[in-house]
Structures are given as C-alpha cells and as structure tokens.
Write a structure and sequence with these properties.
Chain lengths: 225, 225
Amino acid sequence: MHKDRTHVQLSARDKMYEHIKNRIINLDYEPGEKISEKDVALHYNVSKTPVREAFLKLAEEELIKIYPQRYTAVSKIDLDLVEEGRFLRENIECAIVKEACNKLNDDYFMHFELNLKLQQFCIEKGSYQELFGLDEEFHRLLFEMCNKLRIWKLMRSMNSHFDRLRVLRLASNHDWKILFDQHTRIFDNISSGQPEKAEKVMLDHLNLVHFETKELKEQYLDYFE
Amino acid sequence: MHKDRTHVQLSARDKMYEHIKNRIINLDYEPGEKISEKDVALHYNVSKTPVREAFLKLAEEELIKIYPQRYTAVSKIDLDLVEEGRFLRENIECAIVKEACNKLNDDYFMHFELNLKLQQFCIEKGSYQELFGLDEEFHRLLFEMCNKLRIWKLMRSMNSHFDRLRVLRLASNHDWKILFDQHTRIFDNISSGQPEKAEKVMLDHLNLVHFETKELKEQYLDYFE
DNA sequence: TTCTTCATCCTTGCATGGTAGCATTTTAAT
DNA sequence: ATTAAAATGCTACCATGCAAGGATGAAGAA
C-alpha cells in the first residue's frame, strides 16, 4: 500500500501564512497598517523566522509591502490589481468551462450533483457561510476536471484584494438563488455538451459580483491606494 | 526632482533567486538533481538564510521540490505544467491583444515601432540572442499597455518548465523571419483597430512554438516527470 | 542468508543575535 | 530661531547553531 502521508502537520511557516493572510483579508490587519516581524512573532509565540518567511510569501502576492530596513505595511486595496484579477478570471474561467464540456465523466458528474444538492440544502437552511464554500468548490471542481488546478491557485492568489472588497460590504446582497440557478445551468450545459451556452452563463455569472466599488472607495477612502 | 531610488542594490536573497533560477532553466542544475541549502550557500559564499528564502520562492513556482527534513531536488520537467502554461498564455494573450486595440497611444506606438525596427536589425545581423529578448519585450509591451503587468509576471512564472524545454532543443529551428512577420501583422492590426484579425494572428503566433515534445521526452527521459 | 534494530549521518525547520541602513530626535553651532 | 550634524532607536536582513526527523548502513538475531 502506498502511503501518501499528505502532510497533515503544517509547518509553523504555513500556519503563520494562513493566520496572517486571514487577518489581512478580514481587515483585522487594516490596509495601510504597519506590521513587524517581531511583533507578529511575539503575538503568535514563534520565532521571527517562520513569520519572516510568511511575510515574503505575502509580499509576493502584494498583500503586504516590505520596505527593506524600514518597515512593512499591509497593502491598501489596489483597484488596478482587482481589475487584473477580474480580467484573468473572466477570460480563464470562460475558457475552462468550454474545455470542461469534453472532460466530464461519471465521477465528476457525481461530484457536481452532490455539490449542487448541498448548495440547495444550504439555501433552504440559510447557511450562507457554507454556501460560500460550496460556491468556491464548484468553480474549483471545473479547474480540477480540466487538470488546471495550478491556474486556479494562481487565480485565487490574485484575487485577495478583491476578497477584501467583499468583506467591506458586509451586508452582502448576494442573491444566492440566482447564483445557484446559474451554477445549475452551467453544469447542465456542460453535461449536455453545449460549450457556447455554458460560456455565456459563466460570463453572466462572473459579472454578477461586480458591484459598487466607487461607493466603497468613498466610504473607506483610507483603505484604498 | 523626485528621487525614486528604485533599489539598484538587489538583496542577497534576490541575487540567489536569480542565480539558481538561471542555472535550473539552463539545465545546469539538472532535472531530478538534489540540491541543498548548505551546498549552494557554500558555493556562493553566503549564509543559508538567503539561499533558503530563494528556495522557498522557487518551490512556489514548482521549479524545485522541498521534502521537509529530507532533501530538496530540482523538479523534473512536468508536461502537465507546460500544458497549463500554454493554456494560460493562449487564452490570456489573445484577450490582451484585443484589449490592446483600445489602448494604443502615440507613446506606445513609438515603442512598438522601435522594437520592430530592432527586431529587423537583429535578423539581418543574425543576433538571435538579442532577438529573443526583443520577442519577450514585444509581448511584455502588450501587457504593459493594458495595465496587466502582474498577469504577465504570473504567466512568465508559470512558463519556467516550458523554458527548459526550449533549452533542450538547442538547435532552435525557429524561423525568426516568420515570427517577425507575425509581430508586424499583430501590431498593424492593433494600430488599425482590428481586434479579431489581431487575435487570429496571435493564435497562430503562439501555436508556432509548439514542437516535438514527444521526441524530446524520449531522448531525455530522465529529465521528465 | 534474511530480517530487524539501532546508531549515525544527512537534510530542512526553527530560534536567536548581530548588522546595516533609514528615520527621528537630540544636540550643537551659527 | 534656524540649521546642520550627530546620536539614538527602529526596521528588516543575514549569519549561525541547534533541533527534529527521515535515510542509510552496520550489527545482531533468527
């Protein structure tokens, strides 16, 4: 038997990365706020090394900006970066959904069916937190099916600034029923092998989350670049 | 006068990253070869820290694989990853070239004209090394014009495995004249505002570099995943 | 011979302290 | 009072040593 031992044990560095990233995205560390290796290390009771390594990774994603020998600060929300993320997602995900039409098999069919059932269940129950996760999972599955998980990962990493926007408008006016409906139609078009229709629904779907950035920027001016 | 002080001085970490990455892409460190923080640090006469930090970044790009507490090895060429890179590039760059039609201004017009003139010059002179750089620059300019340099960077980082393939077939049978011709037609279509035509040429252009991966894999079996 | 155990030698992970360089404050000179 | 220079304190950068854990091979038992 082949023992995969898929690293259940996360390294201190990875844990720090996850913690800090979550705090940034949840605006717990505010955009523009200074953070230091030393303070964070003390706060989490680890040495500076894993914190520093997490910082470097976060700096790669532009979630923080390191000014060498001076200080490090949480990046303000950069609408140009948000736009780049949107552009990337729109173009890639529309291409993915077309390719997905040729990749669907029984195994993934079941995965999608289960996912959609769970979405429906969550809507009825009103568990929007879990629904959010299922939404992510639905899209991730499309990439996994096409053997494009690395692109998914890259795309997600580029959307961290967008994620902070999402947190800003707490009173999320998502109409989950519409999202679910679109998911269903995307899946139906894939399973019936209609790539053009699937792409069209996906385009509508992705444009649904475009929202009032202008108002948010006026309201939280300090948080923006 | 505003003094930008754009860090002419690279950190030891960044230097190590560049050095190691170049050695990997030029197959100086062979696919599958073990490398250790300590050895590399000794070789370059720096401490383990900057080497380790460079390793972490390279591991992010999947150019090396770190097995914690065991060893680190240069990743073998992964054709799945090459395919993901190709997919990303094809879809994004076709979208970019369409957007570029709306973004061209006098400034960039001159940049492109100069770039193409230089390409022509290099072909006549036979300086294929420089021509390669100008090719990169041509494509980068398209992204820069569209305010999408981050996507360019991501895309490039995903194509490192592909770059190693390029090194493998040293006797590059590029027909540079055709590439130049396509560059010219892309630019002409952009400047005359014909996005569909520009996209079509770009698609042909990107497909031109598809080559005999199968033969290469048979010849250098050990270098592949 | 073959298998098991255990000691040794690797590796990377992490902790710690000193260094270099920027910023701010204090000091001193005009 | 103003300005310049020096001292101080802060930061991230880097060097180094130890710790944790897998790999290897020798030694001993079956």
